Amino acid sequence: MNFDPYFCLMESTLDATAKQDMLSFEAFRNSVISDYRMALLSREVSLLGRREVLTGKAKFGIFGDGKEVAQIALAKFFQKGDFRSGYYRDQTFMFALGVTNVEDYFSQLYSDVYHDPYSGGKNMNAHFATEFVNKNGLWSDLVNSYNISADIAPTAGQMVRALGMAFASNCFRSSKHKDQFSNLSNNGNEVCFCTIGDASTSEGHFWEVVNAAGVIQAPLAIFVYDDGYGISVPTSLQTTKGSISEALKGIEIEHGTNGIKIYTVKGWDYAALCETFEEGISYTRETHTPVLFHIQEMTQPQGHSTSGSHERYKSSERLQWEREWDCNKKMREWLLLNELTTEDILQELEIEVKQEVRFFKLAAWEKYISPIKEKLIEGVQLAQEGLNDTDLKLVLDLLHDLVHSKEPLKRDIFRALNLVLEKVTNHPNKIAVRDFLDAYYKQQAPFYSKDLYNEGPLSTLNVSVVEPIYTVDAPILNGYEVLNHYFDLLFEQNPFVYAFGEDLGNIGDVNQGFAGLQIKHGVDRIFDTGIREQSIIGQAHGMAMRGLRPIAEIQYLDYLLYGIQTLSDDIATLHYRSNGLQSSPVIIRTRGHRLEGIFHSGSPMGVIINALRGMYVCVPRNMVQAVGMYNTLLRGNDPALLIECLNGYRLKETVPANITEFTVPLGKPEVIKEGNDITIVSYGSTLRIIEDAAIRLNDMGIDCEIIDVQTLLPFDINHQILVSLKKTNRIIFIDEDVPGGASAYLYQQVIEVQGGYRYLDVAARTLSAKAHRPAFASDGDYFSKPNTEEIIKVISEMIAE
Ligand SMILES: Cc1ncc(C[n+]2csc(CCOP(=O)(O)OP(=O)(O)O)c2C)c(N)n1
Ligand SMILES: [Mg+2]
């Protein structure tokens, strides 16, 4: 092994005196021993963590054993200001940075709502996060922090976010407005570290991102932890040639090409790991281009997770190999071989670490369980008070399991005490027990529901309403020209805004919203991407998490499905799963509804609103409304999808004078035609068909009130639709989604949530498209989607009933 003993200490950030100090052999030795101590500590956490699950103190556990040494090495090169988008094996990395400690780690394992610092008890263990935004929604000092984006469980999901977080550095570097980004970036000189398991590289996300990173050349450092398995499935069944570095040869950078620099290194070889990361991370930091480390020969000493055991699928030879090549064992051997320490010292260290982990684990457990036990005692006492002997015996029976449980859950308290009230119907202390349960529920429930959206000052729902101003000589433009004019001004005024997507840069999008703007505002801010919807969305997400305001375009609504995983699992859950520590005010812009055929006229709004709770979903009927919504969204911190109507780009619209100022509030429907006989609730392009039908119905003596809901998420916050229903006593919900899609949601909101059923003279109806995808051409559209005649027929029937 070619190893310079001082090599791994040469951090460029150290000042001269510190460097001088560390050039002493003693300092080197202490540092290496402290690294080994960290590896031991992390291993002990894994061992005890698993035991906590198996003895019933925690629900599930997934640990970082077998990956310790590599993570200690890579943490050396992670600097303040850098970002990480990783996965559930990174505990040692986090211990080494000080992002977690033993007590906090166990608090998360116990899902302690008060003390899990990363998710407030919402996320599984080893899913870390640091603060990106403060309680007021303002971005924190990311330049002087270790920035850990909140982890998700879906494998490879972290890749697309990582691309965006790395790419944001490119944006900061090329911006003319660096002075405005001083808390967000050190002039774009940071690196995004992305960790992923070997098997997860089989996912499309991985391939999309390595290709995109090779093209766009962002400072992304990918670490593939190769332990040979994805749960039970070996690499030979996952990866071409059984090796991700071999499979990636075509993407590897060569002289004069773009691409990714690729390194391989063994996960048990401390010295080589330090050396390789030092070289590779310096390279990416200096050149701002991507690098990938294939870290081979890692192990899983305890198997994949607490669900199941690896003895079921690993051969005894493999298990023996894993024991021999365990990275901690190898590091220990290396320490002794190089006479850096002695067997006695190591044994002492091992005992000390075990005691330390046990101590902090216990502290975390006490913190977690004490308040629950206090509540349990309080509830049990109330439930026993004032009972006669027979009832007391019954109640003691009912409470037996709860009282004797070593690890009672809150739900056990609710169950047992409710059972008491159900069985002892004339309980003398009934009111006190009920009050106790209600108060406890009220206190605890918010922990599990809060932060789905921003709740503080930067909640998009708090954006003040600014009405559009129309001057007498206001220009009248086509819808696409309204957008074009707006984006032009927006990009002039707001340096945080970026726009990109397929065909968006050079030709200015397929409907010319950005026509001519790339030349004017620069290829760095308005640009084309490859056809890669998932990572377009992820790229925008990562940028938004770093404080930029990207507007990422998905060319047609139908293709949003390619990115729905990232939208649903990552973007929509971010604020919630990080317990409000992080926000992604990304805007996904797309266009949709009626056009042509099976793959160009979808309106899968039911899919979207069900998958995207945690995002806002705007469905403007025209481009002026769309602009007002863009303005609103840009003033808040929440992620949103905005669907422009394909049949709106050539609609003539009057342009407000305050086009970059006026706002359309979210969750406020608009009555676009008043009427007395029936309320028609709809949104987007279907409104134009409804307006046509309403004119003909009017000629037939039926006076329709048409309401544009404007946003599906949130939906009619002030129950304005109910006001209309109280007047007309008839209501129909019309859209072009499948039957039972978004129209069922509208129905549920008004009839159930708003209590609309009380004001109905006839049964409420929904009218949607057919269950199949829309057939091609105008007749296909006519027979597949709600048409004017159908609307007239259904409404006439409702009036006649
Ligand atoms: C999209 C998705 N599919 C399946 C799973 C279930 N799952 C969790 S981890 C895992 C294996 C991942 O293996 P690898 O990427 O090699 O990481 P390792 O656990 O070995 O470190 C699977 C299949 C998941 N979390 N997400
Ligand atoms: Mg694996």
Give keywords.
alpha/beta; 7-stranded mixed sheet; 27 helices; globular; disordered N terminus; binds thiamine diphosphate; binds magnesium ion
Set out the fold topology.
Blueprint: H1 16-22, H2 25-54, H3 68-75, E1 83-85, H4 91-97, H5 102-109, E2 147-148, H6 157-174, E3 192-197, H7 204-216, E4 220-225, E5 229-230, E6 233-234, H8 244-247, E7 261-266, H9 270-287, E8 291-296, H10 316-324, H11 327-337, H12 343-384, H13 389-404, H14 410-423, H15 430-449, E9 476-478, H16 479-493, E10 497-501, H17 517-521, E11 526-528, H18 533-545, E12 549-554, H19 564-571, H20 574-577, E13 587-592, H21 605-611, E14 616-618, H22 623-635, E15 640-645, E16 652-654, E17 670-673, E18 678-682, H23 686-699, E19 704-708, E20 711-713, H24 720-728, E21 731-734, H25 742-753, E22 765-767, H26 777-784, H27 788-800
Parallel strand pairs: 1-2, 1-3, 3-4, 4-8, 7-8, 10-11, 10-12, 12-13, 13-15, 14-15, 18-19, 18-21, 21-22
Antiparallel strand pairs: 5-6, 9-16, 14-20, 17-19
Helix pairs in contact: 2-3, 2-4, 2-11, 2-12, 3-4, 3-9, 5-12, 6-7, 6-18, 6-19, 12-13, 12-14, 12-15, 13-14, 14-15, 16-22, 18-19, 21-25, 23-27
Magnesium ion (MG) is lined by residues 197-199, 227, 229-230.
Descriptive overview:
By secondary structure, the protein is α/β, with parallel strands linked by helices. Helices cover 43% and strands 11% of the residues. The protein is built from 27 helices and 22 strands. The strands form five sheets. It has a seven-stranded mixed sheet with strand order 11-10-12-13-15-14-20, sandwiched between helices. Strands 2-1-3-4-8-7 form a six-stranded parallel sheet, sandwiched between helices. A five-stranded mixed sheet has the order 17-19-18-21-22, with helices on both faces. A hairpin with a 2-residue loop joins strand 5 and strand 6. The radius of gyration is 30 Å and the shape is globular. It starts with 15 loop residues before the first helix and ends with a helix. Mean pLDDT is 96; it is low at 1-12. Bound molecules: thiamine diphosphate and magnesium ion. Thiamine diphosphate binds next to strand 5.
